[in-house]
Structure prediction request, 706 residues.
Amino acid sequence: MSKQKKYTREQRGTVGRIESDNPRMTCRNVNVYYGDKHAIIDVSIDVGRNEVIAMIGPSGCGKSTFLRCLNRMNDTIPTCRVTGDIFLDDTDIYEKNIDVVPLRAQVGMVFQKPNPFPKSIYDNIAYGPRIHGLVGNRQEEDEIVETSLKKAGLWKEVQDRLNQPGTSLSGGQQQRLCIARTIAVSPEVILMDEPCSALDPIATAKIEELIDELREHYTIAIVTHSMQQAARVSQRTAYFHLGDLIEVGETKKIFTNPQHTLTEDYITGRFG
Amino acid sequence: MNNTEPEQTDAAQPESPRTIDIVNKGLAKRYGREKRFKMYGFFAVAISLSFLALLFLTIFSNGYSAFYQTYVKLEVFFDPADIDVDDPANSNFPGLVKKTLRSEFPDVKKRKEKKKLYSLVSSGAAFQLQRMIEQQPELVGSTMTIEVPADDDVDMFMKGNISRDVPENERRISDRQLDWIDKWLKEGRIAKRFNTTFFTSGDSREPELAGILGALTGSIFTLALTLLLSFPVGVAAAMYLEEFAPRNRWIDLVEVNINNLAAVPSIVFGLLGLAVFINFFHLPRSAPLVGGLVLTLMTLPVIIIASRASLQSVPPSIREAALGVGASKVQTVLHHVLPLALPGMLTGTIIGIARALGETAPLLMIGMVAFIVDIPKGFTDPATALPVQIFLWADSPERGFVERTSAAIIVLLVLLVVINSLAVILRNRFERRW
Prediction:
């Protein structure tokens, strides 16, 4: 812990390459405040197309807060204020007349705790497409439910009990159901906020496998506490520390040859 | 376990006794405290249950007799000389009853005694005969055996509330009247049977003719209006305040005032109703319309507070899930939050409605305390409500109203139980949708 104190604000600037060759989302000089608290300090980073970017860092470092900026989930917190630019392709998502409803249809989110709706498995998946008007009839709806569940690797387990409540599934199944629900609206970016923290290793392995498959079609940003998980699923990794983005780079490089001493301390387990 | 072992460890560390010994020492005390706490709870429940049982016992033992009423069989000759078939309303039916009674006991000649004889039968007998002729004019000229309600004093005597042993001048029934009743008893012409009048008529000055239906209908009209207005308005207000309202000083002010309103004495709402609905908007006095509006105002804060609490108890993860797939704020609330909060809202509403059902004070202020014989047919007809009826009857000196007061309380309690079970059924149905 004493090591952290050695660094002043100036020394916590970002090292590594923040740009991506093929960016999907570009964030520049993002600051987030919770009332008086400055939670995210001047963060700039790109999220590349069809890549998995992992965000790691000790608790309270702002990685979840930053993730929630990407689909404006922070809007629901009354005291939260965001400045800076976040672009999805070419649109600034924090512009005044941006509607968050279509934005969240484009940038889906999977939460830390599995949170299926207290409805049937079928309705859980069909809800998103229904409200966005993606389905015209029951047949299309059936199709979307089936393909989403197949993509999430849950179809075989639940195909006979689509009418049972989503809450009756096990924790790992519930989380995959939530992923299926997110991909049912065919988003372009999927945000995952510690999706495996409530799951056992077997369920975690399944979700990680799934993330790897989903990369083909989607851009994924994942927040995780497990460095092994970040190493396994991501191509790029971003290390956050007390609201600062300390280091960004290819996952392999970050874990084998970190540039910043803070990153090194964290991944070698000296703190965090 | 070996006994010597702990001694050895004690010897090794004489200064710090083992944790387990400290725990064991305090254990008896801890369990004792637990036991005592359970006992307090048990006694509290037992005492409240016994008081409840006592309440029910008194009310039922006082009230059950009101469900029976003494009737006298009379041989009535519908004399064409007395009855104008075309205009029964102006015919002398009380005279017909008197005539019939005189023919029963021809030896009664003195004016005072005649009066006593007439008072054995309820004044409702004449109306009963009149109704019969109105419905079946062909009865004129025939003789029929008709059961007419006995006077409430006779009824009380038959129910054992007036004793023969009391000296005549302290008794509401004279010796002479007792003789006549005895004669009827011997002939089997006076008997108690189920009191349909109590359930089919409105209020009356005569206990034997008084019924609960007027007050019951009034209460139902009033409560229906209250429910119809307060539930949607209350739920909508709670939803706005909880989910949509901006967090600022004005909303805080509104919240504080809603909480204050819930604590305002109900009679103040009555005054408000009197000033606003009757004096300003000129709505009819004594009407369930105004009663319903006043009770709505009284119930609204309760419903809003309960609904907000139940909205707050919906886990935020559900909201996030809905927002995460791109549902708008309204969709999130209507599709996901409201269904989960509804059972709690219903419970709050039922509590509010049950309180409104038992409310008397505000209804006094808007004139629903009037003596109303007719059964209300709509929201603007003059009406009274069950608790007000109980209040009115409890205030009446006649012995017959004592049992009717208790009987009305029984009806009120039954209505409450019905409403509450309805709430439980509704709640279970909604909760089954996980």
The longest helix of chain B spans residues 19-63. Strands of chain B lie at 68-77, 143-149, 190-194. Chain B has two domains: 66-195, 213-431. The interface with chain A takes residues 247, 315, 317-328, 331, 335-336, 339-340, 433-434 of chain B (CB under 8 Å).
